Amino acid sequence: MSRGPDALERLGQEDLQNIVLDLLSTLQIHPAARLLRSTGDGKNLFGDLLQLNSAVNSGEFDFDRIKPLVKSALADIPDDILIWIHVYRAVTESTPPPRPISSSIQQTPWSQNTSGFVNSSEFRQNVDPILKLELERLYVGLPKFHQTFFADVPDLDMVSEAVFRRCIEGDNPLFKEGWSGWPAGARENDLLAQPRTPLQGSTGKRSLDIGFVNSDITYKPDSEDSRYRWSHILVAGELKSNPKADTSSIAWIDLARYAREVLAAQDTRRFVLGFTLCGSHMRVWEFDRLGGIASEQFDINKKDGGLQFVTAILGFLRMNDEVLGFDPTIVMSNGERYIEIERDGQTARLIIDKVMKRSSCIVGRATTCWKAHWEEDPWTPLVIKDSWQYTDRDEEGILVQEATEKGVINIARYYHHETVRVHGADDDVQNNVRKGLDITKATNYRPGRAMLPAASASIVSRKQLSSGAGVKRPSSETDAALPPSKRSVSTSPVKASVKALSNRRWRAA
């Protein structure tokens, strides 16, 4: 059939029905359909597509509801993300509204992200489509990115200028109309260490092009456990020889995959910094619970770009843990990690024993649960729950408190909850992590573009504590793609404006 914009309008009802049924059958056999969550109480999106297929086959279906999906699938250059957005809209509109349920259930918005994999080996061909859905759009070309994420490194600009000045001086300068010895046609096998060994700590096999690790990590070739782990990575990098690879479908999504692994492996990480270097074109990135944002592109073989390159590398090397994205509200002392909460006007210390669960996603609620105990009472177990939440949602901690007061069984007994605060402010992505960076200034920002279900947020905070099984604590996040003020990220497929980028972090025990 013709791919013109009016092609569908010229089709008869039976022809249109057959095309839709063929499309739905194709979507059903796609691996993503069995990995993405259902819009209702079903196991996954596959079940929703079956229901939609039955509705279409009945002949009593309003095909205007599904035409946007068909048009996006028949586009000359199909957009995978847009197709799955229209899939969710189609199955949602074809499903009758659910019966009223308790408010505690309604507080968890509908979201789709990579934490929803079930019994998956996380092969790349399965992860990438959902990760693209999760991130929806990565915003690049943001002005003031350097000032936002490098300003807290002491004397960085002064030191960088001094180092770069040394690079351009002398009889054989390291930099002269570009970096000396820069490979013109770099091939991965020629430049990267071989063989490429996957890092430990991930479900699927994942290797990293380049990264920064802690200085106290010692590589021991003869050790039984000689490989680096994702828990070692401070800054991740993606290298491409082709400058044209600086796109969302190539370098950007590769780096996002690394960021997801780092966030999953490091339970105190609020956000992750990284960089892409495609040919000599570089960007610096930040990934948080709202998504990913990046600096303007610069050419490291130009003088101004060469200085920016030196500044970025020195900045990564000299950043403290908090600037790198680690949670300053979790303190390490004498080999123990702890958090402090304020209850009844007094400060109490909770010792973290171990991680119970950490969501493996970038965008979303990013819930983490720790087993813990009071400093003065090591025999009574507690659970700390740390999550991002939209500010326009009722606090989950209050709901758990009500459940405890009403004697609801099979949930943790409530003890305390609070919004996580960092440096005296509610911990959120937009204001606390991203420090108010305006994504509408991004070079690839498009007004009116609908956001993905998992990427529309409002503000999220974190903190809540439960005796015997549930403790939440305030948390913070520093990027805008899902949560800014509470750490308990939730998403709504309907709300999708820039103003909705507001979440905060909370904790409960």
From TrEMBL:
InterPro entries: Pkinase_fungal. It comes from Hirsutella rhossiliensis. Residues 208-465 form the Fungal-type protein kinase domain. Coiled coil: none annotated. It comes from the Eukaryota. PANTHER family: FUNK1 11, FUNK1 6. Residues 465-509 are annotated as: Disordered. This is Fungal-type protein kinase domain-containing protein. Pfam families: Pkinase_fungal.
